[in-house]
Amino acid sequence: MTDMTQPVTPRKTRIRWSALADHAVLILGSLFMLIPLLVVLQTTTTTDIDTIKHGPQLVLGDQFGENLNKAMFKASGFSGENTGTSMLMNSMILGLGFALGKIVIGMMAAYALVYFRLRFATLAFWLIFTTLLLPLEVRILPSYEIAQKMGLLNTYTGLIVPLIASATATFFFRQYFRSVPEELVEAARIDGAGPIKFFVDILVPLSQTMIAAMFIIMFVFGWNQYLWPTMITTEESMYTLVRGIKQITQDLEGTNIPEYGRANMLALIAILPPVAVVIFFQSWFVKGLTESDK
Amino acid sequence: MKRAGFSTRWLPILLLVPQLAIIAIFFYWPAVHAVQSSFYLQDPFGFGSTYVGVDNYADLANSGEYLKIARFTLIFTVLVTFFSLGLALLLAVKADNVIRGARSYRTLLMWVYAVAPPVAGFIGLIMFNQSWGPLTELARSVGWDFKLGVNFNDTATAMVLVSVWKQVPVNFIFFLSGLQSIPKAVREAALIDNRSATGRFWDVTFPLLAPTGFFLLIINITYALFDTFGIIDTLVKGEPGNNPMTLVYKVYVDGFRGNDLGGSSAQSVVLMVLVLALTVFQFRLIERRIHYT
After folding, report:
1. Which A residues 105-134 touch B at CB under 8 Å?
2. The domain containing residue B186 runs over which residues?
């Protein structure tokens, strides 16, 4: 009996040791990701003077409400219009508008490309998918000039529409539609369903999960846009949280007492909605992200 | 196209019009415009432009500053890509191993995906605050007088660190999903053949992850080249000065601040060519991947 159990025991402990090492690495990695957020969080709960005097502490302070109040309702610019509330609203409009626009336009175009006999299908395909090759950053100045000529500066249209000019969602939905069984469209046609009915009653409900996954990715992408909003919005009432972050950092350089509480709170507000969406809809989000490359 | 598609004529055209209109106005027009104005010298006050041929490009090739920035961009890209891929791979392998707490670890390691680059840069400013930043104090405790925004190398270090922090989650998600798609039978066979975990990793897991790795390599290079703009802009507080900057940041500084439209457009075209080359490379890799798997 003892002979049989003995070789098992050391092996068991060795496995436990390696599991322990795995956990240690994962905990260190998690801390690497998390500590910066905790530092920001801590400074939102103390007074600015405390932060300047002592730096971030290990305990939370009691100024969270006060800092939140300052962040949401106090403006720092010249016009007094870039309060946290107004920036939060603009960020929401950008995130939701971008995701919605991208999905609607992408699904329409993908449907046309996959389900119709079209004379210029190949040309349309290449025209659309070339846009995947060049990010907005490399054509930023001419894009700005064009938006300016069209009178789109400081408008939501100018903020959202040029960002939609790339075919990521179209590409994604095209891939997905192609994987939908062909019998479905045949059956629908035999039953007398037209193309619009097929799209609205069959294809869209069928794509629900994909739409949700795309929506999450696009919302986060839109919310986090920085360069384009920086160029296109010059009026403070049009700032998004992410675009406002530069002004917030510049305020910290000013001659007055730097408002760390307010600044960190605004950063926290800019982080929370997209992070919450990603965490709550984790499985959809991961599915959407990892399948978009295929 | 599906064999059993619809044959309505006007509907597909109507469906395609919004997409085509948007990309015509906001993609093709600006792209052509950039190529065109890279051959012109623009009057800074907007009074007109003169055709100068390839002068703008020649100026770039002869500009010591531009070459210095190109070199920094290269080093920056290599460092960010290497560290964020390596760290993510390590964490993904460990997260794939553990049974208890796997979900919590996944959440803890991926949430940063949703943080905007400039906000990540802002957090970097807080962590490296000159008088009380936790990382500044950490550096000071080992005798490194860290000066963000003043010392070139210190600022570059902060840029790399923040960029890696921001990019690890994406790589982690892809590596983990790649690991989880390795069939159980393969894992068990490897377990029988090779008792050492390290040996198994290099002989079985790593080659099976290679396609994911190649795909991520391109994603990371593009990220380091373009998406780090927000990080760099906030870390230098919008004042480039003598601080390190990448090629994309230079396009912005020259074109938007310096009003050198021709030079900035030429830089844009150089970047376009760079991205095109990367994408062609990527397509060829994906093609190979479809062939062999």
Report:
1. 105-106, 108-109, 111-118, 121, 124, 127-128, 131-134
2. 68-245
